[in-house]
Design goal:
Strands 1-4 form a two-stranded antiparallel ribbon. The chain is elongated, with a radius of gyration of 21 Å. Helices cover 58% and strands 5% of the residues. The relative contact order is 0.08. It is mainly alpha-helical.
């Protein structure tokens, strides 16, 4: 039996490809807009129309079309220099992509980041690193985009400045760049790593740090995130067991852990629901691995 999903009224004009349906008085669904037709926004403002729905079968294609339309509007706002509207547009795109059951929206976020960083952060090396990550592993690029999106959500919720938000987004984008130098099979394996494999994997923070230091002029905070995102404040992390960590490193390290637990299943463990993942990280915070205050702030941005 076909299921139907209601469309937000603010998004109806963005759907030019996907057919839209309405619910009849008998409870059935009938075609309102056929595939390829476009409901003009000015017409929608003047017309009384029922709640509109998409078919569950069209959900994946609908989300792709929606994010593409949002990105086009986002690029226009950047070109016009409307920084406040840029922030709200990006927040909306991230929220749509992170909404439960809409994980396919994450596939469109690299374009969003390209629009953001390509205009604000005039550094071609950053996008070159992103391409290297993408070419080495689809799993790795998805993880990178997820971590960046969650970082943006944290920044928006806690009202970080535009400058700090962009810098943290860049740090999140590059935090795992060292993995681009590792064997693809090591990155994508669903098995628990052997001691020898983990030893190799644990080199990626230092590799990433050195890549950033040697080839770019990113500031120290971004360099430290690449090096320290697997360190823990009790000294139990790697690669050096450091306890004195930069605040950016602590934040992205926590987000990195949350993303790894929630977005990817492996043979030895299933992907966890957000609540269960947060409970595990809470235990680590109580053990002193993460800042308790930082954990509270991160939790608050997820349950808004």
């Amino acid at each position: 039996m076909t299921e139907y999903i209601i469309v937000k009224k603010s998004q109806i004009s963005l759907f030019k490809i996907i057919p839209l349906y309405y619910q009849t008085q008998t409870g059935n669904y009938a075609l309102y807009k056929k595939k390829g037709d476009h409901l003009d926004e000015s017409w929608l403002h003047k017309t009384r129309y029922p709640d509109l729905y998409i078919s569950d079968a069209d959900k994946k294609e609908a989300l792709t079309e929606l994010i593409a339309a949002l990105n086009k509007d986002f690029e226009k706002k950047i070109a016009e220099g409307k920084l406040k509207e840029v922030r709200h547009a990006l927040e909306f795109i991230v929220e749509e992509a992170l909404a439960p059951g809409q994980e396919n929206g994450m596939n469109a976020l690299p374009q969003t980041l390209d629009i953001l960083l390509g205009r604000y952060q005039n550094d071609n090396q950053a996008m070159e690193y992103l391409r290297k990550i993408d070419s080495n592993s689809h799993v790795l690029i998805k993880h990178t985009v997820n971590v960046t999106a969650l970082t943006l959500q944290f920044c928006f919720f806690h009202k970080f400045s535009e400058s700090d938000t962009r810098q943290l987004a860049m740090a999140a984008l590059l935090h795992d760049v060292g993995c681009a130098k590792l064997d693809k099979d090591l990155i994508e394996t669903d098995n628990r790593l052997t001691d020898e494999q983990f030893k190799s994997y644990a080199t990626h923070p230092k590799i990433g740090h050195d890549m950033i230091v040697q080839n770019t002029e990113f500031n120290t905070a971004i360099q430290k995130v690449a090096l320290e995102h697997h360190e823990r404040v009790d000294g139990s992390g790697y690669p050096s067991g450091s306890k004195r960590l930069a605040s950016y490193s602590q934040l992205i390290g926590l987000i990195d852990s949350y993303e790894s637990l929630t977005y990817r299943s492996k043979r030895f463990r299933k992907a966890k629901k957000p609540f269960d993942a947060l409970n595990l990280i809470k235990e680590e915070a109580l053990q002193g691995k993460f800042s308790k205050e930082l954990f509270k702030k991160f939790t608050s941005c997820l349950v808004k």
